[in-house]
Amino acid sequence: MNFLRQFLALLRMNLAGIPQRTGAVLTVVVGVMCAVGVLVSMLSMSTGARRQALGDVRADRVALTPIGSRGSENSITREQAQAALDLPYVDRGSDGKPLVLLQSTVPIEGRRRESGARIIFPLTGVSPNVTDYYPEMQLTQGRMFTAGLHELVVSRACSQFVGFDVNDKRTLRGIDWTIVGRFTQGSLQQCRVYADVDTLMTTLTRNSYSGVTVRLRSAGDYPAFARAVAANPGLKLEAIPERQLVEEDMKRFTALLNFVSLFVGTIMAIAATLGAVNSLYAIVDARRGELATLRAIGFGQGAILASVLCESVLLAVPGALLGSALAWLLFNRMAVSPFGFTFELAVTPSLAVLGIEWALIMGVAGGLLPALRAARVPLTEALRAT
Amino acid sequence: MTAAAPFATVCDGDFIRARHVLVKYLPLIWSGIWRKPGRTILIFLQVAVAFVLFGVLAGMKSGIDHAVAAARADLLLVHSSVALFGTNLPLGDLERIRSVPGVRQVEPVELFGTTYQKPDQFVGVVAIPPDNGWQDAFTYHIAPAYLAAFSSTRTGALVREELARKYHWKIGDRIPLLSAITKKDGSTDWAFEIVGTYTDSDLGGGRDVIIINYTFYDEARLSGTGTVNHFNLLISDPKLAVGIADEIDRRFANSSNETRTESLRELAQAELQAIGDLNFLVRAVIAAVLMALLFATATMMMQSIRERIPELGVLKTIGFSDQMVFLLILCEATLVFVLAGAFGLALANLVFPWAARFVPGLSMPAAIVVAGLAAAAILALISTAVPATLAARLKVVTALRAR
């Protein structure tokens, strides 16, 4: 109880002294602010990328992939796709047919509108039930492609960045394809082009689909559906939820971003901690006489140690809040497209919490040595000081 | 005595005097630095850590620029104009490409993806017919013994050294790979025998890659027989690259397999432009680092000078001029900062081999070292300018009274 009273009295004294030590105090705050600001801004890349990729994922959509294989370059034969149509638990579209989306994807390239730089994006052949399958897909201009014709519909990003406009023609394998419509699809920010899957496969002389996905009647049907797929020996496919597929896909990308962020953040944090140690030493040194007097009138070493440590942490936390706020002001919702993947940076509350956790570590690590020195000031110092 | 002699004596005198001054004041500067060893070491470490970051970030950028310049301009890739991946060219195009003047060698290349044991352990496969001298049209370095083994083993594979280390593969191992490509027997399990290892100087080559025999692969696969992803071309003179590329694309224009021909350097440029979007972030980070550092050191210097006022008063009493005091303080700070900056850059250099696993082509040219040291010196000058001016303006009486 005594310890707590002493500790609180000392802490109040420390905090009251802040105005006289603006330089040293600001060093701690600014150092932590910069370190946390950099960490949070850099991590906002992978958070933003993940949020973008998972934005439109629905639990009732399941991909059928060859067993053990991943990615968009699968090969699923027409027989396998036909068998998928007869699977149980699959939802029905407006035409009464099973909601199985057949896809064949080919990466095509275009030039960026402003810079002329090359950009590669997917041209996906899809079965005509695509608008049923993706309810979030909205045509904003023109119309849908007609099955059997060489027609394309493009996402909004295509006309924004790559200069694909309605009524333009693009040549593919010596054949003219007309862009007949423009669409938005949920939070999709990438350029994506859809065409009729059978027409595209004929043009590319392909014989197998690169992807087959199904929509279940409800997300809860997934375990039963997965069992039904596994129990069908002729199918040779496995059912993977859309979310899992996207997560696995993102893992490689975000692992790189996270590594770079944490590497830079750690170095910044070390520099900020060293700065804090230096500033707090200066504060303690300037107060040697005072601290010795406090010891002489009966304040315990433990209470002094705890009060300096606590002061350090209390200085670090506002730094973290400022850093997160600055990152949010400067970078939140800023659109970037590293590696051709467009997304908005996202500074989220959970990142701010992470920043505060780091600040606590910096505060404790930075305050420990100065606090020990403060607690060890010899009593004789009080008598010598005048 | 000649006429030039007195002049030489004067010069010598100046030189000796200058050296004398330096030798005279160095101990003073040195003792100033070590007045509070704990504080100096902390500032030193702080500056050093900041310059580790500076070195790594700047090295990343220069590494990328360097990699583009080093990419081979005499190797061209002919691929389908539709896309780099996924759409193939017929093998029969080879002769028509070979007949373009300036083309020395054409090698067909097929690419496909596989996984090893787990779905997330990706292994890229490059299939190449093992003709005599095929490796001249690639950026690979392969020992002659491995080359011979590769051309005589139909199911043989050359494994990139880093990949072999990753999975502890040894020569003679048989590696099973799962692929989306169906074999004639209906299975998608492929297996290759490791006959050697290789290294690749190309930045875009990929780390987890093996090279296999195209002839074997083309015969074994169910569909797509007789097609390739692209052709690798060796041309006689890199200066002719643009003309040759245009000529090839013109020959295949309006056919059902239009081509697009690019040099490895152009591809590297396009690939790295994508990373270029991150440059603003790198710059922002460097700015934040230097800002935080400046703030910390400036307050530290201020504090330090305040504590030393009586000492400075003594210096002035025994005859040091205001300018001299000013210079002494600047020298102290600059010496610490530049040494710490050099230490930090050296540390960054040590980190490079480790960081190269994640970011290829890190390098630190002299320009960055110079820029880093200059930044350290400027940082020192800015953070001490105000306290040093205060110190220079001190009145002896006031300073001594502060005791």
Content of β-strand of chain B: 15-25%
The rounded distance between the terminal residues' Cα atoms of chain B is 57 Å
Number of helical elements of chain B: 13
Task: Please provide the count of β strands of chain B.
Answer: 12
Give a concise summary:
The complex is a heterodimer of chains A (386) and B (403). Chain A is of the alpha+beta class and 386 residues long.
Quickly list its features:
A: 386 residues, alpha+beta, 10-stranded mixed beta sheet, two-stranded antiparallel ribbon, 14 strands, B: 403 residues, 6-stranded mixed barrel, two-stranded antiparallel sheet, 13 helices
Structure description:
The complex is a heterodimer of chains A (386) and B (403). Chain A is α+β, with helices and mostly antiparallel strands. Chain A is elongated and about 100 Å long. Chain A starts with a helix and ends with a helix. Chain B has 403 residues and is an alpha+beta fold. The longest helix of chain B has 34 residues. The N terminus of chain B is likely disordered. Classes of the chains: A alpha+beta (386), B alpha+beta (403). At the A-B interface, helix 2, strand 3 and helix 8 of A face helix 2, strand 3, helix 8 and helix 9 of B.
